[in-house]
C-alpha cells in the first residue's frame, strides 16, 4: 500500500560501495539517505536521516505518485587557508524516490525537519479508508392489490 523503492538504485549503491571510484584506487562511501516508514492510524510516516543538511537544501516533489526527496550536503569549511585533514562525511547531492500507492493522499503531505530528521506524513485517501456498508434484508415490500 505504501511504497516500494527502485531496485536499480540499490544495485547502484551496492556497486559503488564495493568497487569504489574506478581508476582512482579509492573506496567511496555511498550517498545514503536512510529511512524508516510505518503506518500510524490513518497516515503513513516516512523519516529520512539527513544530518548536517540545511533545511533550504532539501527539495520535495510529487509527480504521478512518485515522491522525490533531494538534499545537498555542502562543505562546512570556509576560507582559503582551510586545509582538510580528515574527510569521511559524504558531501554532494543525495536523492531518493518512493513510489506511493493510489490509496495515499499526495495532495496533503506534511513535511517537518528537526534535529537532522526529515519527517513526512502522508494521509490515507478517504476512498481507501474502511467504511461500513449497510445490509438490506432483501425482503420486498408486499402490497395488496385489490380489484
Automatic annotation (TrEMBL):
Domain called SHSP: residue spans: 26-138
Listed name of the protein: Hsp20/alpha crystallin family protein
Family: Belongs to the small heat shock protein (HSP20) family.
A Pfam short name: HSP20
Domain of life: Bacteria
Amino acid at each position: 500500500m505504501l511504497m516500494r523503492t527502485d531496485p536499480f538504485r540499490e544495485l547502484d549503491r551496492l556497486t559503488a560501495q564495493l568497487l569504489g571510484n574506478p581508476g582512482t584506487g579509492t573506496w567511496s562511501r555511498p550517498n545514503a539517505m536512510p529511512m524508516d516508514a510505518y503506518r500510524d492510524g490513518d497516515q503513513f510516516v516516512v523519516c529520512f536521516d539527513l544530518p548536517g543538511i540545511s533545511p533550504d537544501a532539501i527539495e520535495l516533489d510529487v509527480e504521478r505518485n512518485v515522491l522525490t526527496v533531494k538534499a545537498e550536503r555542502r562543505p562546512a569549511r570556509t576560507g582559503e587557508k582551510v586545509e582538510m585533514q580528515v574527510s569521511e562525511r559524504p558531501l554532494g547531492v543525495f536523492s531518493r524516490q518512493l513510489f506511493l500507492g493510489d490509496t495515499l493522499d499526495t495532495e496533503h503531505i506534511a513535511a517537518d525537519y528537526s534535529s537532522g530528521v526529515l519527517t513526512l506524513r502522508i494521509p490515507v485517501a478517504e476512498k481507501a479508508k474502511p467504511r461500513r456498508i449497510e445490509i438490506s434484508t432483501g425482503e420486498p415490500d408486499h402490497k395488496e392489490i385489490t380489484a
